[in-house]
Amino acid sequence: MTTYGHWTAGAWRAPEKGHYPIVNPATEEVVGEAPESTPAEVADAVAAAQAARSGWSRTDPRERAAVLDRIADLLSERRGELVPLLQAETGATLCVAKSLQMTPAVDRFRRYARGALEPDVVPLAPSPVPAGPPAPGGLMNAAAVRRPVGVVGCITSYNFPVVNLAGKVGPALAMGNTVVAKPAPQDPLCCLELGPLFQEAGLPDGVFNVVTGSGADAGEALVAHPGVDMISFTGSTGVGRKIAETAGRSMKRTLMELGGKGAAIVLEDADDKVLESAIGAVGSVWSFHSGQFCTAPTRALVHRSLYERVVTGLQRYAGALTIGSPVDNSTIVGPLISAAQRDRVEAYIAGARDQGARIVAGGSRPAMRPGFYVAPTLIADATPEMAVAREEIFGPVVVVMPFDDEDEAVRIANGTSYGLYDYVFSADTGRAWALAARLHSGNVGINTVRRHPETPFGGFKKSGIGRDGGSFALHAYSELQSLVWPS
Ligand code: NAD
User: Fold this and answer.
1) Among residues 5, 60, 13, 55, which one has the least CA distance to residue 32?
2) How far apart are CA 264 and CA 177, in angstroms?
3) How confident is the model over 97-138, as pLDDT tens digits?
4) pLDDT tens digits along 15-72
5) What is the largest distance, in Å, between two alpha-carbon atoms of the chain?
6) What DSSP line would sit under 105-148, residue for residue?
């Protein structure tokens, strides 16, 4: 078990207020201790990022690319040491920890090593300008150039700590920004490990700093600090709103990746193959990190003609999943992150039951002790007004609801305050494409839950503001500067 300091200006700093324990969600044992960073210590980290800003922003992009590539190399080389820690602090199954927590993080650093070399100048056509009082007429040339924003505060959610942070830090560093990271309280240890790893990769001291805390204080201090130019946030809509309010006061740039309540719409033309992929897609809410992912298709909206068939298919799917210790290779469903999150999820299930919805699978706490387990739960016959059908649960819970025509499907799908990721399952992909235009959602998957790494990622409505992903992330972490000059 390791006791960590915060990582500031290229060194571990002992926290003035001490530490708090990080608990393994499966064993309930303490994995390590993270620092309780005070506002003064957050300010030190911001000062380090400010001091490093000028130097890093003026590095040759090839140098930034080389450092990011080396980070990817080191992360890949160290996966043997880091994956067990990552697994223990997140409670992810071994398969998820290896292939979906660490591998995509390496890929993201590699991607943004290339990103550092993408053109940062947008040439514009010359424009004739008429003579006026201040200057004679002439042909004006112009270009827009991407410049770093400055010091970026990266505040992330639990669930995929290193991948989430890599999706922010990779493009932020590629564009010449410096960073203060504030990972989630529940699983920050691997993010702290990134400090010395980045240093070893050649990142100058102060360009990347990490602070943590068991409560909201460290994040609040980072958002309020006048030396921070941008907040890149991944987390719940409620916290995002608070951050946006504070950040707005000092006109900080914000990138907000918030909650979701994805709808998977199954149209009546779905043939056996499409139905099978729809059931597998919705089943991912149970089989992938116990439903703790923002893009989860947690609402299955099924044409009435296929409704009972899909309910039965999902019931079978849920029943076949092995719940157990995440380090057992046969386990598909591991624990939730904490007792608090398990209790929250159970309260949603109890609420749905009380309101008359049908619990088709799961619904009770599995017998395993210790650990924060919830059985894969399928709730049928819920109405769109019920909390379980409207609010983000962030656990292994699926709600299935029937519809009679496309208008009704669209109405239900758009009927929450979220708009992050929806899915359409149809034998006619042209019809699904047309239906996507009616969905108020930042992303729509047609007959798949697979993602494409180059697409812009973000939400409509209360699911977020701005986009990252692929080259769009490079745009998110830069400001456009216009340059004009006469011919
Ligand atoms: P959360 O909002 O509770 O916490 C997220 C982060 O914000 C944590 O680091 C937390 O310490 C910090 N924080 C809390 N209060 C703060 C404040 N007042 N000021 C500054 N920082 C503060 O979210 P969570 O429970 O960690 O994660 C689950 C949520 O994250 C879900 O809503 C999920 O949909 C969302 N999420 C979204 C995406 C996306 O890309 N859209 C990805 C993953 C998770």
Assistant:
1) 5
2) 38
3) 989 889 999 999 999 999 999 999 999 999 999 998 888 899
4) 999 999 999 999 999 999 999 999 999 999 999 999 999 999 999 999 999 999 999 9
5) 83
6) HHHHHHHHHHHTTS--EEEEEEEEE--BTTB--EEEEEEEEEEE
Residue with tokens 């270009």: 143
- Nearest-CA residue for atom 13 of ligand 1: 216
Residues whose beta carbon lies within 6 Å of some atom of ligand 1: 155-159, 182, 184-185, 216, 219-220, 223, 234-236, 239, 242-243, 257-260, 294, 392, 394, 420, 464
Instruction: Say how far apart CA 219 and CA 245 lie, in whole Å.
Output: 14
Which of 257, 268, 392, 406 is an active site residue? 257
Ligand 1 centroid to residue 218 C-alpha, Å = 13
Q: Note if 89 is an active site residue.
A: no
Sign of CA dihedral 351, 354, 359, 362: positive
Indicate which atom in ligand 1 lies nearest the CA of residue 242. Answer: 18
Task: Give the Å distance between the CA of 340 and the centre of ligand 1.
Answer: 15
What are the structural domains, with CATH classification, of the chain? 2-258+464-486 (3.40.605.10), 263-458 (3.40.309.10)
Does the annotation mark 191 as catalytic? Answer: no
How far is the C-alpha of 9 from the C-alpha of 178, rounded, in Å? 11
Tokens standing for 49? Answer: 């990022």
Q: Is the dihedral of CA 402, 406, 408, 410 positive or negative?
A: positive
Query: How many angstroms is it from 78 CA to the middle of ligand 1?
Result: 27
Record the tokens describing residue 245, joined without a space.
């309010």
d(CA 205, CA 62): 18
